[in-house]
Amino acid sequence: MQKLTRIITFSATLALISGCSYVGVYKRDIPQGNLITQEMVEQLQLGMTEEQVMYVMGRPLLEAPFDSREWDYVFRLDKAYSDIETRRVTLTFDRQGQLTQINKEGDLSKDLPLDTETSLGPASEGTDPLDALPSDSTQTQPPESERAPAPRP
């Protein structure tokens, strides 16, 4: 009987430790789609060409499959410990490629809490990936006697 009690206690403890955790899981904000800001949308004017719109907003995330005159810019921010924020701008062009309609969804006036300064993401082409690493200011140069001699030309 004592052995059975130990087995049950051990099994219950193991189940609690493995399946139930009181320590929270680390989450991070996940931005997806085209970044849309109020400043970008304010630059849009009816009558702009597709090239001008693309210069201001970038390439659209979605083009209507049956009618390429409608462009959708969608941004979704899945905040780690709160709700999901969605922004959408739909632009419609006429047959001559002129902007005729701007539809906005979501609150564009709020600043987005994107932390782009400290994240180590994909490097731009032509940059050294080691330059993106944070530098340690405590490092010192080795003494002159330990330095390798400079190559002779």
Descriptive account of the structure:
- Keywords: Cell outer membrane, Lipoprotein, Membrane, Palmitate, Signal.
- Part of the Bam complex.
- Pfam families: BamE.
- It is a lipid-anchor.
- Residues 104-113, 144-153 have a biased composition (Basic and acidic residues).
- 21% of the residues lie in helices and 21% in strands.
- It is of the alpha+beta class and 153 residues long.
- It has a domain at 29-111: Beta-lactamase Inhibitory Protein, Chain:B, domain 1 (2-Layer Sandwich), CATH 3.30.1450.
- Strands 1, 2, 3, 4 and 5 form a five-stranded antiparallel beta sheet that branches.
- The mean pLDDT is 75.
Keywords:
alpha+beta; elongated; 21% strand; signal; palmitate; BamE_dom; lipoprotein; five-stranded antiparallel sheet; single chain; 153 residues; Beta-lactamase Inhibitory Protein, Chain:B, domain 1; Outer membrane protein assembly factor BamE
